[in-house]
């Protein structure tokens, strides 16, 4: 009979070795940050990146614009000495308030039309879709109270409608998948939606609103993503005459475009969740190997085969932990 190896004849030494390897594995685990903390750090870092970019890009232009405005004010007061500074500022504030309410000066008259039937319909769309451009808002108390209840019931209804439209779009994608193949279905959906909802609408805005193509594309994405800054809004230029079908067509485009963009966002979320599932799979495998390591510590009378299996298990644990730490 072959003599047992020295490690097999000394259970205490073997247990000490297993405990040492377990401490090493625990050390690797302690160095790995939880996924939520990493996501939070990435989120804050992304916000800091955006803040720095906007500060560098918009800061100089803002300071230059403010300087030009102040210079224009003093030139106006210098050329027309009969004007008083406080009176001029009061007039400017009144013009700004009137503009926010939808009124603009046109010679000796003011422009109306934002609260006609078509304008009110477009405002209702922007309210329940949570776009909220901010260029138009109800001023009377009764309209403000009605807006609260209108949005309270309209937002869930809008979400349900977007879900149904998204399902119809997904059904169309699946029909295309049967003909084009599984690999091309999402490519077809992304390209078609990108063409219909982001690439073609800027041409319409360029013709009717007089915007550049880049401005129209910017407005399209800001609208469909419900960011709604309000710096570009359709149908508010008092110098233009808009077709009666224009705002209705844009409203339909908003509904279907938001549904398509929701599908794209869900696709991105699925990709992120799949990568998270891979990490969870690695965690599960790691826990199973940890349990085997604990069972290895409890054994008091090992055999040569157990010793070899224990050493192999320890090596596997260290390799898995190293891989998870690197990921």
UniProtKB/TrEMBL annotation:
Its main location: membrane. It comes from the Eukaryota. Glycans are attached at residue 108. Residues 111-169, 197-273 form the Potassium channel domain. InterPro entries: 2pore_dom_K_chnl, 2pore_dom_K_chnl_TASK, K_chnl_dom. The keyword Transmembrane applies. It is found in: Membrane. One of its GO terms (biological process) is stabilization of membrane potential. The chain crosses the membrane at residues 37-57, 117-136, 142-163, 184-205, 217-236, 248-272. One of its GO terms (molecular function) is potassium ion leak channel activity. GO terms for cellular component: plasma membrane. Keywords: Ion channel, Ion transport, Membrane, Potassium, Potassium channel, Potassium transport, Transmembrane, Transmembrane helix, Transport. It is a multi-pass membrane protein. Belongs to the two pore domain potassium channel (TC 1.A.1.8) family. This is Potassium channel subfamily K member.
